[in-house]
Amino acid sequence: MHATYHSNVKLARPDIRHPRVVLAGCQALVEGDGDDDGLVGALRDRGLHAHWLAWDNPATLQADLVILRATWDYTERHDEFLAWTKKVRNLLNAPEVVAWNSDKHYLLDLAAAGVPTVPSAFFAPGEPVSVPGGEVVVKPAVGAGSVGAQRFTDAVAAAEHAAALQANGRTVVIQPYDERIEAGETALVFLAGKQSHAFIKGPMLPPPGGSVAMHDSGTYAEEQLQPADPDFEMWDVGHATLAAAAAHLGIEPTEFLYARVDVIGDRRDPRLLELELVEPGLGWRQLAAPERALAQRQFAVGVESALERLGLGPFSGRGR
Predict the structure, then answer these.
(1) Strand-pair category, 121-123 with 225-227
(2) pTM of the prediction?
(3) Each residue's pLDDT tens digit, 288-315
């Protein structure tokens, strides 16, 4: 198969395979929030032609490779989304990665592997909920963008919110509130398994009784971001997290095209809050232009490597 991206594009080397690449968003934000705007150009610089589509656009099924970037409504359509991940020809990150990482039970797997993790208790629909003392965070096990997450100092109110989520068919996660999050989360970005850059995400959950400020699209909470240069102890948690995730899934860390490891605290006692392998914001706009260009080139090279691994490299169709 020698697919071209557009029928009216004259190819200088027609004997070379030109895989069709799609960056997947959602209907509310087909091209994301603007942070990924440089990716199409970075891919083009490597000879790869990509365009944006909402993940549920049937045309995604014609693409050779789909890269998840802004599929921010998937949590409301989780089963449908997971079924779609298996229908597309090739997906980054891979369907089995998405299935595992889209449910916060993955935190238990990472904690069992020795990753320092924020303690998490899970309660499926119908299960009695136990709320520990002190301030807690209650959120759905399948959720993104802080939707459905709230802070509580009142155990009764926390149990009521958990019950409401359960009544909606959601498994609930309850975590102790760690005050160090007031200083923000350190988001560690890895591209093709390699350390890339980092940024700080300001605290998103308001104090008990407050409401989360949502983006106009309704798909995620507004974030306050700033650049960061974390200590190596923070990066060590990131590397350990990625290694544990890859080992659990039976793959190499390099097979994660992108990963964001969200850590709270500082080098004295850093703890994993989230590992984002589905559709994390990668904080490109927190980088100065030269560093951003370099990091996005690293992303594009990671896509090239993945295409080779998947048998979609530029010369993979020759001689067949």
Answers:
(1) unpaired
(2) 0.89
(3) 999 999 999 999 999 999 999 999 986 5
Question: What whole-number distance in Å separates Cα of residue 170 and Cα of residue 272?
Answer: 23
DSSP labels, 195-217: EEEEEEE---SPSTT----B-TT
Among the listed residues 200, 203, 206, 222, the one whose alpha carbon sits nearest the alpha carbon of residue 266:
200
Which residue is it, tokens 């004259």? 10
- Counting Cβ atoms within 10 Å, is residue 230 exposed (0-12), middle (13-18) or buried (19+)? buried
Q: Which residues pair with 202 in a beta bridge?
A: none
Instruction: For residue 25, count CB atoms less than 10 angstroms from its CB and return exposed for 0-12, middle for 13-18, buried for 19 or more.
Output: buried
Q: How many CA atoms lie within 13 A of 57 on its CB side?
A: 21
Distances 172 to 24, 133, 311 between C-alpha atoms, Å:
28, 17, 40
Residues paired with residue 117 on neighbouring β-strands, in sequence order: 272
Q: Are 216 and 202 in contact (CB under 8 A)?
A: no
Q: How far is the C-alpha of 57 from the C-alpha of 43, rounded, in Å?
A: 22
- The model's pLDDT over 179-223, given as tens digits with 9 standing for 90+, comes to 999 889 999 999 999 999 999 998 767 677 665 555 565 555 566
Pairing mode, strands 271-276 and 194-201 = unpaired
d(CA 57, CA 146) in angstroms, rounded, equals: 25
Residue 20 amino acid letter: R
Q: How, if at all, do strands 136-140 and 121-123 pair?
A: unpaired
- Cis amide linkage into residue 101, ω under 30° from 0: no
Region of residue 25 (left: phi > 0; alpha: psi -120 to 50; beta: else): beta
Phi, psi (5° rounding) for residue 142? -110, 105
Starting at the earlier edge strand, list the strands of the sheet with 121-123: 121-123, 172-176, 136-140, 150-152
Q: Cα dihedral sign for 79, 283, 265, 194?
A: positive
- Give yes or no for a contact between 294 and 194, defined as CB atoms under 8 angstroms apart: no
Per DSSP, what are the bridge partners of residue 275? 261
CB 170 within 8 A of CB 176: no
